[in-house]
Design a protein that fits this description.
InterPro entries: GcvT/YgfZ/DmdA (IPR028896), GcvT/YgfZ_C (IPR029043), GcvT_C (IPR013977), GCVT_N (IPR006222), TrmE/GcvT-like (IPR027266), YgfZ/GCV_T_CS (IPR017703). Belongs to the GcvT family. By secondary structure, this protein is α+β, with helices and mostly antiparallel strands. It has 9 helices and 23 strands. Helix content is about 20%, strand content about 30%. The strands form 6 sheets. Strands 14-15-16-13-7-17 form a 6-stranded mixed sheet. The protein has a 6-stranded antiparallel barrel with strand order 18-21-20-19-22-23. Strands 9-10-11-8-12 form a 5-stranded antiparallel sheet, with helices on one face. Strand 10 and strand 11 form a beta hairpin.
């Protein structure tokens, strides 16, 4: 078995535990984080934290584990970290440094069984039959008429496919998938949200942290690529992509490993980000969300989710509608970013020369650099990038391209 030790600080090393050393759980509980000022505030860690490259129990069946946390953010009633009191710093780090955000409220669905690949191939928009173990992709759950339900990030593992979905859709998607399992299908659906934790690492310096943790073998790999490790015997999967971007990385782990992994990332310089700043970042980057940009009002092509779409894989749910839209150029509206002159409520009507051309779907006060900013669907022929629109009675908006959708282009007509 190949294994590696991950360095955990600006020179914090992760050393293997000696054979006679106390169990990892005891070490973790009694660990003393010594903050040593050395070469610009470097840190060291007093216990071993090996990252072993081997398929962990997360790819098998396992029992629920108790969640552990280390941060003390302001939290909501459901336990979501709203803010660490550093939203401006975190948003700046997302553009210029690196942030880590706890996305454990997102749903995780495990699809197993002999027919799992063909099943997901038929139920979602991506070409699962083209993927092998260790690969991944975006895929979209749609209605039979190609209306959007949610974007899912899928990881193809040895014994299962793990789907990462939005918090509000996990229950309904799990129920929907179970509904479409026929008697002869060898497929099992399991909601493993409470058995796992998820962190996203995002920002231009995220690759540097990966290299410092001796996880650099994932740097530069295709989007969705993932590998399995263990932290003191507890399972950890790391994947390329950070939900909000093809860049960055996502960590899925046993909840009992979450505290150690979180501290390791912070020790490397990652800035913690709460859900409030994450929502601001989502809107600024243009990542569509269920109940806002992903609803039964809009289809997958209007949402611009071309990366998650296969046009030649054969029959699947929504395929006929999608094929007609592509063949006859039937896309009527497009998702845009809108720079705004002042705050405005979502669902506000957007007009050009007094005529309704769309509506706002999300809004954020933004940053000092961005100012008020929103997302909205605009009729294709009504306006284009750089054009001005009116939002509500008198708020001026300017249409801008969205980073999340920038590299998702329709296929060439050639």
């Amino acid at each position: 078995m190949y294994s590696l030790s991950a360095a955990i600080s600006c020179t914090c090393s992760l050393r293997r535990r000696a054979p006679n050393a106390p169990p990892f759980q005891s070490l973790r509980k009694n660990a003393i984080w010594r903050h040593q000022k050395k070469n610009h505030n470097q840190f060291s860690l007093s216990f071993a934290l090996p990252f072993d490259l081997s398929p962990p129990p997360i790819d098998l069946d396992f029992d629920p584990l108790e969640t552990t946390t280390t941060a003390e953010p302001e939290v909501s009633e459901d336990g979501t970290a709203i803010t660490y009191g550093n939203d401006d710093e975190a948003l700046d780090a997302a553009d210029n440094g690196v942030v880590v955000v706890d996305l454990s409220d997102y749903g995780r669905i495990r699809v197993s069984g002999e027919d799992r690949i063909q099943f997901l191939h038929n139920q979602t928009t991506a070409n699962f039959e083209s993927l092998g173990e260790g690969q991944g992709c975006d895929t979209v759950f749609v209605t039979p008429t190609a209306r959007t339900i949610d974007i899912s990030h899928a990881w193809v593992m040895k014994n299962a496919v793990v789907l990462l979905v939005s918090p509000m859709t996990c229950g309904s998607i799990t129920k929907m998938l179970n509904k479409y399992i026929f008697f002869s299908d060898k497929v099992e659906i399991q909601d493993i949200t409470n058995q796992t934790s998820i962190f996203a690492l995002s920002g231009p310096k995220s690759s540097k942290i990966m290299e410092d943790l001796n996880l650099g073998d994932l740097v530069g790999q295709p989007y969705g690529s993932h590998k399995h490790y263990s932290v003191g015997g507890m399972p950890l999967t790391v994947a390329v992509g950070s939900i909000i971007s093809v860049e960055g990385f996502t960590f899925m782990m046993s909840p009992t490993a979450a505290r150690s992994v979180w501290k390791a990332l912070l020790a490397q310089g990652a800035i913690p980000m709460g859900s409030s700043a994450w929502e601001t970042l989502r809107i600024l980057r243009g990542r569509p969300a269920p109940g806002k940009e992903l609803t039964d009002e809009f289809n997958v092509l209007e949402a611009g989710l071309w990366r998650a779409l296969s046009l030649n894989k054969g029959c699947y749910k929504g395929q006929e509608t999608i094929a007609r839209l592509v063949t006859y150029d039937g896309i009527k509206q497009t998702l845009w970013g809108i720079r705004l002159s002042s705050p405005v409520e979502p669902s506000t009507i957007v007009t050009v020369d007094g005529k309704k051309v769309g509506k706002l779907t999300s809004f954020t006060a933004g940053t000092k650099t961005s100012g008020p900013f929103g997302l909205g669907y605009i009729k294709r022929r009504a306006a284009s990038e750089g054009d001005s629109v009116t939002v509500g009675d008198n708020v001026v908006g300017t249409l801008v391209e969205l980073p999340f959708l920038r590299d998702q282009r329709p296929p060439s007509k050639d």
